[in-house]
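> call design_seq(struct)
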């Protein structure tokens, strides 16, 4: 089924699944950080694939991203994306440093960010798998710290995305 063929009911159902997955991921992040994490309710939007980078600030926006392919009953991929400052801030929080302390990422910090994002992706997928009675596993994660346009291009090529709408 093409994304643009989804009914309003199906889009609402995807939003509900997304909320449940995000809630589980927020709980996992809270446990990693040792303090509460607040989230907003995720929104489901259908946008032309070419406009996806604009949702995140444009194709030249510097971001940290962790990508995992989906294994099991559903094919595709999961992409955790955070603006550069947020990714550096996450590393600071995980290292118990004041946010803003980290100015760039070395190999250890990349590994830490990758592990944290992998935990969040796994928590998200586990919640959806339980609700939908599916077998879903993430592949080993890949980290990138680059412009959003380049990261999205690699991710969409990897899953063979041919749709006009995402």
């Amino acid at each position: 089924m093409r994304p643009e063929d989804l009914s309003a009911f199906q889009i609402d159902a995807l939003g509900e699944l997304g909320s449940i997955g995000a809630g589980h991921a927020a709980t996992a992040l809270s446990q990693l950080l040792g303090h509460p994490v607040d989230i907003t309710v995720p929104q489901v939007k259908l946008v032309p694939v070419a406009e996806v980078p604009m949702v995140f600030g444009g194709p030249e926006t510097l971001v940290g991203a962790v990508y995992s392919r989906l294994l099991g009953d559903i094919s595709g991929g999961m992409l955790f994306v955070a603006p550069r400052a947020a990714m550096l801030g996450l590393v600071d929080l995980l290292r118990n440093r004041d946010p803003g302390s980290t100015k760039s990422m070395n190999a250890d910090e990349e590994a830490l960010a990758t592990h944290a994002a992998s935990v969040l992706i796994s928590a998200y997928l586990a919640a959806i798998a339980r609700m939908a009675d599916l077998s879903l596993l993430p592949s080993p994660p890949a980290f990138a710290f680059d412009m959003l346009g380049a990261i999205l291009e690699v991710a969409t090529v990897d899953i063979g995305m041919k749709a006009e709408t995402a």
